[in-house]
Write a structure and sequence with these properties.
The protein has helices at residues 4-39, 43-70, 73-78, 82-94, 100-116, 120-131, 142-156, 159-167, 176-192, 196-200, 203-210, 215-231, 235-248, 251-256. With 266 residues, it is mainly alpha-helical. It folds into 2 domains: 1-146, no CATH class; 174-266, no CATH class. α1 (4-39) runs antiparallel to α2 and α6 (120-131) packs antiparallel against α7.
Length: 266
Amino acid sequence: MIPVDAAISRFRRDLTIGTVLNGLLIFTASASLLTVLVAGGSAGAAILMLAVGLLWMFLSYRSIQGSRLTADSPLLIATGRFDEAENRIDAALRSFSLFRTVKLISLHHLALLRHAQRRWQESARLCQALLAQRMGALQGLSKPNTLLLADNLMHMGDLPGVYQALSRLYQQRLNLSEALTMEQLQVEYLARIGAWDHLLANVGAKIQLAELMPSTQAARTQAYLALAALKSGRSALSNWLRRRAELLVDPPDLTANRPLLGELWP
């Protein structure tokens, strides 16, 4: 298993090396071009430019190989093939890459893997290390990574951390999948802090969004809404939502990791 501290350290080191090497290549190529223009076709400068171009092509090819190593990692994680995903991510993190994107994606995949392995603290540390970096062309990666961080912190019981993570996304445009994940996290957060009135605000829209979620997330969201209705004295709505949740997931599975929901099935 990849040690998280070692993975983060290697990730930061490789980003620094890649940035420095990119700068050196650009500086050398620019200097060679300027020499050719000023000297009127210096053979040495032309050879140096050719060498820099060939080196850049070679390093780019090596970088593409690294991106291929981790391309299938999300599918492997989703199908429970954790060992194979670990090996591919480890190889991608160890491989040289001239481009930041390969390392950023590899670290995000490792955070996904640790989350799937229920190693919440390690996954959260990886998410935080990733969010501390300049995303550049991968700015869109910050949103799913922030949602993943919030989910890790929720499992760890760090509710102030969950609020801070979600507040980063309030003014951002989310796609449907991201919006559903955020809605699920917001519902659970409000239930954890006992904000029952806020949880039932616009409950019809929340129920409609829950219907678009995967079965486990939909059942959990409707169960939290049922608990809010129970706490607010709306027993008819609570019973209706509780039955809807039961149709999707067995109550023991819902309450296994969310003891707060045990009040619905005493």
